[in-house]
Input
Amino acid sequence: MTSRRIVLAGGGTAGHIEPMLAVADALRVADPGGRLTCLGTTRGLEVSLVPARGFQLELIPPVPLPRRPTIDLLLVPGRLWNSVRAAERILRATRAEAVVGFGGYVALPAYLAARRAHLPIVVHEQNFVPGLANRIAARFADVVAVTFPGTPLAGAEVVGMPLRPTIANLDRVAMRAQARAHFGLGPTRPTLLVFGGSQGARSLNTAVAAAVDRLHARDIQILHAVGGKNVVLDGPGSKAGSAPYVVVPYLERMDLAYAAADLALCRSGAVSCAELSAVGLPAVFVPLPIGNGEQRRNAEPVVEAGGGLLVEDSALSPDLIVGTVADLLLDDIRLAAMASATARFGRRDAAARMAELVMATVR
Output
């Protein structure tokens, strides 16, 4: 098989970067001799995440799009053209044979550069509500893949969310004892996992911290990722013999966090929804209350499948956590039914399927 040269574009947040890296992992398996290059900017998490996974990273100028009409909107065409030209130089230097994009402000210049170079384009949309870059590229891309059924992109194929191998291959039951020991959690206590994405979620952090004493009274232990930019909460601590409350800025091992937990309380980013379903972990989703409503739309299919609950950010409170969330966590029968439902909804093979689509498009 001829080794291929492929450029992948996805930067900014983990929601774009993790699917890109998952597909890159799958392409490396499918085509061990191939050359993979990731595009990013200096502003995103890709600067650290991409090299850490062993992939080449090339940088282009960022083209942020103002959310409201301002004077900055007049600067967008010039910035976009500069970024497209930078992407064209990288495509020529790497002798790229295809571009695979995952949306966001890195992807749009890559799509336009690939179109100008007459290269095949493969698009993956993570969210139920497509972003601007993918809405534009879907009009001329060779292949459009989406995570959720019903995503409004014409001609799209539903493949699911590309997941890193440690998540896609996770056996939660087999890993539970090791995972709980890794975080210093008790081996048998009901375990609540709380996280708000890579940056954390202040409303979740505040409500959970205020509920810890009453959760301890119900013998519930908590693994709480507060986010790298948030102050690590001191909380009330854990008295000898009481349920642990483990607070960390960031979870490097999400696979172990999922394995340790019986229930998650979290935001509903597309990657989080897909990972939770793939590993069969029920969740109480609290969508981010800003943006275009994509987080709510991401969670709705999982909730409709019976794998989670949806709580509005404005309704989240310590009382709700101690009541609704704790009651669910302590109801073994209901929790098991939700775990089965979300696992049936989840997909583990999306990265491999994306690699197949990319290789077929290049051939």
Summary: Residues 94 and 110 are 13 Å apart (CA to CA). The chain has a mean pLDDT of 90.
